Amino acid sequence: MSTDKKIITISREFGSGGRLIGKRLAEKLGVPFYDKQLLDRIAEESGFSKDMIEDAEMKAKNSFLYSLASAMGTRENGPESLSLNERFFLAQFDTIRGIAEEGSCVIVGRCSDYILRGLPEATHVFIYAEEKDKIKRAVEEYGVPEDEVKKLMKDTDKARANYYAYHTGRKWGEHVNYSFSIDSGYIEIEDLVDLIIRYTEVRRFSQA
């Protein structure tokens, strides 16, 4: 079964090529692509400045207390207890839901798989790869030494996992949270893009 409306979210490990895969998907499907520019729209619609959101998120992702909270799942309830970062996340939630209502699109990161969970027209993909493949790709893409890439890869994925766990209560990268997960190290990017598109065409759509 297929549907004319296709929403694809891409979650990815650092160096796996997830952003490029998302961009090529959007180009092939002829639909809007949301990655870093998503932050501009969140800022515009929420009234928060982009710099304020980026600064708060960076501090939160890299803080010990944030990591501890994500591991323990300890958050107070009620709007009066919301931190500034949580208010930013709610703004992000509203913007992403609004984008999905507008039509087909490809969205990279920002817990979009969780925010759009349950939408029958949404396909959630997690891109991963073996460490050697991620290092090779990152060195080529960013032009930095291998030892720096290793640290950047570790820090980036740790921050993503903390952010995801804190705001969703779920484990980042765990296969049950996605429509399917795939190792980008074994398939050429264009073939992988075609595979994802084919998946959206043949998958059974559920209201769950």
Task: Describe this entry's structure for a reader.
The protein has one domain (7-202): 3-Layer(aba) Sandwich (Rossmann fold), CATH 3.40.50.300. The chain has a five-stranded parallel beta sheet, covered by helices on one side. α2 crosses α5 (84-102) and α7 (131-142) crosses α8 (146-168). It has helices at 18-29, 38-46, 50-61, 64-72, 84-102, 112-115, 131-142, 146-168, 189-202; strands spanning 7-12, 33-34, 105-108, 122-128, 180-183. By secondary structure, it is an alpha/beta fold. It is 55% helix and 11% strand. Mean pLDDT is 86; it is low at 69-80. The chain contains nine helices and five strands; from the N terminus they run βαβααααβαβααβα.
CATH topology: Rossmann fold
Strand residue percentage: 5-15%
Stretches where pLDDT is under 50 for at least 5 consecutive residues are: 69-80
Distance between the termini: 16 Å
Radius of gyration: 17 Å
If strands are numbered along the chain, what order do they take across the biggest sheet? 2-3-1-4-5
Kindly report the average pLDDT value.
86
Give the overall silhouette: globular
The arrangement of helices and strands along the chain is: EHEHHHHEHEHHEH
Can you tell me the CATH class?
Alpha Beta
What percentage of residues falls in helices of 4 or more residues? 40-55%
Q: CATH superfamily membership, which one?
A: P-loop containing nucleotide triphosphate hydrolases
What kind of sheet is the major sheet? Answer: 5 strands, parallel
> How many DSSP H or I helices?
9
Strand pairing plus helix content: what structural class?
A: alpha/beta
The overall strand count is 5
Number of separate structural domains: 1
Q: What CATH architecture label applies?
A: 3-Layer(aba) Sandwich
